[in-house]
From TrEMBL:
This is Transposase. SUPFAM superfamilies: Transposase IS200-like. Residues 9-146 form the Transposase IS200-like domain. It holds the Pfam family Y1_Tnp.
């Protein structure tokens, strides 16, 4: 098995990406983004996850983070948030895409290697060890400018679900450790 995308350094800081199946635009609703934020905050409090930067886009999540048990935390995070977002979709009377999302998530589950009832996240989380300052700055800029590049905002700090606010001197949605 490849060692290229594994979080093998327990003290390392990693850039990771977690993607919704078929790159479906799930996180267009605040309710679903809040599930992600609450779960990340829980992982910070209870599972020793340190977050240096983060950004929720419409169909994926980027983190710059560290933990001695990163792979286990991400596994648990994905399992929990998949259930919670799926449940929220079912219970949301305003969700006009419910039938399509149900079909998409259930189809992904049926096609998965484990033949699950449903599947919300794509496999893996693509950890990249940030082993020098240049790479750290590159990924930090990429993460924060993602909503700008997508055309959602003109300045990174205008994107609510991002740590760009913290780096611009305001208080963001999650507690983070600033990269100096």
């Amino acid at each position: 098995m490849s060692e290229k995308y594994k979080a093998n350094d327990p003290k390392g800081i990693y850039f990771i990406t977690i993607t919704v199946v078929q790159w479906a635009d799930i996180f267009t609703r605040r309710e679903y983004c809040e599930i992600i934020c609450d779960s990340l905050a829980y992982c910070q409090r209870e599972k020793n996850l340190t977050i240096f930067a983060w950004c929720i886009m419409t169909n994926h999540l980027h983190l710059i983070c560290s933990s001695p048990a990163l792979a286990n935390i991400i596994r648990d995070f994905k399992k929990y948030t998949a259930k919670e977002v799926y449940r929220a979709i079912q219970q949301n009377p305003q969700e006009s895409r419910k039938n399509w999302l149900n079909w998409l998530i259930k189809s992904a589950g049926e096609l998965s290697a484990k033949h699950e009832e449903y599947k919300f996240w794509q496999p893996g989380y693509h950890p990249i060890l940030l082993h020098n300052n240049g790479l750290m700055e590159q990924k930090l800029d990429y993460l924060h400018y993602n909503p700008v590049t997508a055309g959602f905002v003109e300045e990174p700090e205008h994107w609510y679900y991002s740590s760009a606010r913290d780096y611009a001197g305001s208080k963001g949605r999650l507690s983070i450790v600033l990269i100096q």
